Amino acid sequence: MLLSVFGMDSNVILRAFAALITALILTLLSGAPVIAILHKYQQHGQPIRQDGPQSHLQTKQGTPTMGGIFILIPILVSSVLFANISYHFVWCSLLVLVTYGLTGFIDDYIKVSKQTPNALTVKAKLLLQFMTAVVVATIITAATPRASENALYIPYVRAMFNLSWLYIPFAVVVISGTSNAVNLSDGLDGLAAGLLVLSFTFFGVMAYIIGNPIALNFAFPYIPRAAEIAVIAASAVGACLGFLHYNAPKAKVFMGDTGSLALGALLGTVAVVLKQEILLAIVGIIFVAETLSVMIQVFWFKKTGKRFFKMAPIHHHFEQCGWSERKVVLRFWLIAFIAAFTGFLSLIKF
Fold it and tell me: What is the pTM for the complete model shown?
């Protein structure tokens, strides 16, 4: 850790702030040259879905993808500089980030090189995702205090259920499911990045609380060393804020599966480390809605031959209703902000 040189290694808040600023600066500085390189090697940009909104064929055609590269690298650099990477929770989080990032990169590379919106098969992606999630969930569970290792905490009502052997499969679904939920949400300029800023901010604060004995004052589990996750979350916030500079309408680059799969998996891993999977569903309500809309659409179409929504994921439904892309993004950000505020209410003893 860089700050250990100055005797500040014990100050998590200071290191988290330093990680956020470092990731933000690195992302802003690397964005323009990386986008130029992506333009050079992606002459036609990201393939646009033919069955998606027709307006996207004009407004997004030619925009390069794989922008997740200059999100993930700043997160990794900031984390190595300011987090204690010897902790299980930290290196497991980074392992997820790298593995899912590589999976997304391969998927993006095939899409661009073959100019097809479909690359890796669903089975291939899920196999890579689940294998990584099983390893990480097992290590995290083993590194968690015995009283909490298999626990599912229910916020607001202060309840706790012991899932026993079911916990690891549950954690695997949370990590992989969040990865794919964020991937589904990455369909409008700035949408996923903005939602991730809010989610990682929330879990950064929760990591600091749960990683300190003060967690017991809020009836949350005290998980030693979990505070270090605040540094990882802060790095993600800084990188996503920097990326928004290039991804805000009209986007100069898309994060692609390289970014969305990795960041979603990291978010799910953070929730598993902190034992706050239920709060993840609350704070990430937009991610949940995007996923459910696709599931409902597929189920309803197979059952009736008709569409339940005008288009799925649900952000496209609102576009088809006449909402502008900017309006959809801002409304979804607002809902996510309210959801994050609702999440913080779990700290209050009712």
Answer: 0.93
